[in-house]
Amino acid sequence: MKTFNLFICLFMFSQIMVYSQDKIIKKDGETVEVKIELIDQITIKYKNFNNLSGPDYIIDKSEVQRIEYENGSTETFEIFSGVKKLSKAELKDSIVKLINAHAFYRRSYTHRYIANFEEDFLRLRLQDKKGNLSFRTILYDLSNVYEFHDISKRIDKAYLNIFLRTSKDPKNKKWKGEKLVIRMDNSKAAEALLEFLKEYNSILPISP
């Protein structure tokens, strides 16, 4: 009897497991069983359901028809079609979300950037893998950008290089020109972030 009850429990558990994965349905008809990790403006980050302790994978939303979630709900996507259609508040929100999801310190993936806006200034802080925030924090004046460089692409990463005014103490107007280098975990996110930053720069009056 105990053996029978154990068999029933294992069977029911296996049935739950079968239906506890998310599904990505691609536009080419392929279905991938996954666990969704993150969805941002342009990409979907996920783990293969058969290897949840394995690496993260990233796919463009433009390749996806829909996602069927484990709870039975379904999501389709409208792909971002132009930064010029976004308001100032939407641009800020898009910049922050892309940085917080994909941006790292230029020398390693052990420290990621955490972003927020203070009025029109972008503040960046570093966060380690344990979630500890660095005391080092810098404001970036996106109204005073000297130069946006093209994306520098690598096999598994991309770099943004921007020359602009920065300050650790903007209240005392101690600004200086500096190069900001952001390491992104994929080129699509880097390209989108660069476009958002350029558009945000274009709508701001130049700070004194």
Please tell me about this protein's structure.
This protein has 208 residues and is of the alpha+beta class. The chain has two domains: 21-75, SH3 type barrels, CATH 2.30.30; 83-203, PH-domain like, CATH 2.30.29. It is 24% helix and 41% strand. The chain has helices at 2-18, 88-102, 187-203; strands at residues 22-26, 31-39, 43-48, 56-60, 64-68, 74-75, 103-104, 112-118, 121-127, 133-148, 152-153, 158-167, 176-184. Strands 7, 8, 9, 10, 11, 12 and 13 form a seven-stranded antiparallel sheet that branches. Helix 2 runs antiparallel to helix 3 (187-203). The protein is globular. The model is unreliable at 10-19 (pLDDT under 50).
Q: Would you spell out the secondary-structure blueprint of this structure?
A:
Elements: H1 2-18, E1 22-26, E2 31-39, E3 43-48, E4 56-60, E5 64-68, E6 74-75, H2 88-102, E7 103-104, E8 112-118, E9 121-127, E10 133-148, E11 152-153, E12 158-167, E13 176-184, H3 187-203
Antiparallel strand pairs: 1-2, 1-5, 2-3, 3-4, 5-6, 7-13, 8-9, 9-10, 10-12, 11-12, 12-13
